[in-house]
């Protein structure tokens, strides 16, 4: 859906500025629609569900750790749906301190082995901080990112973004 809207907008822009590439414009428009859709939908849905600040924490922490680690990419429409679901659901899942430490340890191992060496330290520090402050929201968000690291197509230690 995001892709078709962006192509339509790009074609309208190209009529006004013919040298522009529809594919490049459509891609950039789609990225911006995706970005804003995730933010707006996360805030609206989480406000309605009841934990807007937890969802905002999840969204911001995911963006931060994603920057340092990379991971699997979905098409933009699926990305919006999965991201909003992740950011809204993670604050609603209560987990015990021992489970936070266990999930944190497994997540730390995934990040250690699946991120490249010069970015590994930042990702691992985020996980250690999250576990040390007993943040179930952060640990579950980082765990979801670890799953995306395991799922990416290239099995190298290079950043995939």
UniProtKB/TrEMBL annotation:
The lineage of its organism: Bacteria, Bacillati, Bacillota, Bacilli, Bacillales. Keywords: Cell membrane, Hydrolase, Membrane, Protease, Quorum sensing, Transmembrane, Transmembrane helix. It comes from the Bacteria. This is Accessory gene regulator B. It comes from Paenibacillus hunanensis. The chain crosses the membrane at residues 33-50, 95-113, 125-151.
